[in-house]
């Protein structure tokens, strides 16, 4: 198992500790950005990454920074002028602060190291500005592990232990790693050789080879960062210039719907910046579909959204209402009145239902014959066509922080806590927070709660406390059962304990929806929106009113036809028919209760994930 915050193992998407380090870096960037904006200053931030620029690149994307230097792609000989030109353009476009991220292993093309102080000196010499330097250092290695680093590491540990006891003598050594949101067996010597080869590729000036070795996502994020960090060019005012086309720019409207999800602002910001690059006029619909009915539609510029990258909440607002049949005519008129050529719908389950209604009513309302793309944004993680939704990682981390505090409050006494986690009828947040916090029991809507099961659970709890346990954590999905509520469970466990331990309830509530989006949610929002705008651009160019919903499946972004959405949905329970994470349920009992097995090859939802590297071709 590879523990490295640098994320430098070729063949793995994320090594143990990387996500937590990225959390530390992003927290620092957000804090620095506040003081930088207030004083209109430039900051140079050095992050770890001796031979791998993952932390620097992803922090730059997630933090909305201006320039980044990574080891895999040393800058050209005129990099000083290029950097200062971008910083100056950003200020002229209205930015109140500038931020340059430098990986500790950054060099020029002659192999000379570029330090944060070197960058500071360049800014002073060429821009006459006294930039501030912050070297984060070993703070990146410390602090609370992120939710991802807890639940994925738990699963990696389970898989590795099982590998040890099942391997035949003389078997090839392997690395157990995460790849495409799945656990894989990677040939150890081959992956180590490939990892060591990256610095040799850079030394040989094969920068494309070095970037490709880091994976397709690394290269695509480099390209995305270049666009996102460059202010859009102003329309030409040269009287002698002739426009290439007399047609007006296509007008693409951004609309939020459904419940609030952290990362909606990041997605809207990315949509505006990337939409301008597609020569679209970007419109913001304030207040969801009711706002569209009310005509609350306004053009958005880069200056309007530039500061939204790390903001929680939703500046455009969001509403849960699904347009009724009676409202469709007025909705069509609003689309025509505002000359909307395409819709980018960012939101949750009700957002998908709203878009689906428009598509199914196209025969009656021609105004709906426009391209539509839905982007998943929901803390419930209950949307079709995507294994993860924007906002889910933030909600999970918020839940884990709260549960950690609950556990500390119970450490001085014999106590059982029954904690209620959000998610409606999707148990993703409950299960993953249980894995991340070492919960003894997790109740899900997908499994339900029975009296017989409660009796066995109560008996196990009593025996645990008699054997010396001082804390027992039970997590209940908010809709695990209609009758066995959090209060009822607490009373049952208290009655069975007969004073052996105390029982307390904790309903985490809407704190799971609050706070700034995590790095993962910001990066995913940017990636999904970039893909969605490519879909819209293609549809508008072809003149086809295609409608789809996009998502992340097996580490890759894909799209699905919106008119076939019901094929993927369990409408009664408001969740996808297939939920990849259900195969992880046995890990809770295996780790916290020392009972059962995680028989990976016998669990269809997870079994295909544990395979040799050739399984990636599936």
The figure for the number of domains is: 3
- Global shape: globular
Determine and state the CATH class of the largest domain: Alpha Beta
Helicity, as a percent range: 40-55%
- The N- to C-terminal Cα distance equals 24 Å
Mean pLDDT metric: 91
CATH architecture group name of the largest domain? 3-Layer(aba) Sandwich
Low-confidence residue ranges: 236-244, 600-618
The neighbouring-strand order within the major sheet is: 9-8-7-10-11-16-17
| Beta-strand proportion | 15-25%
Give the oligomeric state of the chains in this entry, treating copies of one chain as homo and distinct chains as hetero. single chain
Number of strands: 20
Q: Based on helices, strands and strand pairing, what is the structural class?
A: alpha/beta
Report on the structure:
The protein folds into three domains: 1-231, Phosphofructokinase domain (Rossmann fold), CATH 3.40.50.460; 250-389 and 517-576, 3-Layer(aba) Sandwich (Rossmann fold), CATH 3.40.50; 394-513, Phosphofructokinase domain (Rossmann fold, 3-Layer(aba) Sandwich), CATH 3.40.50. The protein has 618 residues and is of the alpha/beta class. The protein is built from 20 helices and 20 strands. The protein is globular. It has helices spanning 18-39, 54-63, 79-92, 116-127, 147-166, 188-203, 207-213, 216-228, 264-277, 288-293, 302-305, 328-337, 349-360, 392-410, 428-437, 451-466, 486-497, 519-542, 586-592, 604-607; strands at residues 42-47, 67-69, 98-103, 132-135, 174-179, 182-187, 251-257, 281-285, 297-299, 342-347, 372-376, 415-421, 441-443, 471-477, 502-507, 547-553, 556-561, 569-570, 575-576, 611-612. Helix content is 41%, strand content 16%. Its EC number is 2.7.1.11. Residues 228-247 have a biased composition (Polar residues). GO terms for molecular function: 6-phosphofructokinase activity; AMP binding; ATP binding; fructose-6-phosphate binding; identical protein binding; metal ion binding; monosaccharide binding.
